[in-house]
Every structure is written in C-alpha cells, then in structure tokens.
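2024-03-11 09:14:02 DEBUG pipeline.ingest accepted 1 chain
2024-03-11 09:14:02 DEBUG pipeline.ingest length=57
2024-03-11 09:14:03 DEBUG pipeline.predict start
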Amino acid sequence: MNYDASARWNLNENFALTFEGVNLTDEANDQYLTPDNRSSFYHHYGRSYFLGARYTY
C-alpha cells in the first residue's frame, strides 16, 4: 500500500499553488502470478514531489 497527498492553496481569485506527493511511504510495487506465486514484476520508483501553479482569467 502506498500513500499519496495533494494540497491546493488559492492565493486570490485567479492564482493558485498546488503541491502533490506520490508514494510517500516509498513502497515498491510488485505483483505475483498464481498458482505458484512467481514474481511477475517488481518496480521501485521512490517518492515523487510535484509543485505547480495555476492562473485563470
């Protein structure tokens, strides 16, 4: 299980800042095939952070 979070701050009527964090717990993504439980794939991307700005008129 991994956790993501996002926030948005409206500075005024036209301008907003956004922040997003993805995979905050730094979990790997792995899947297994049945019936013998073989590993299908394993990916570890780490944490990602994004900062953005939006202007509307």
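2024-03-11 09:14:41 DEBUG pipeline.report The radius of gyration is 18 Å.
2024-03-11 09:14:41 DEBUG pipeline.predict end
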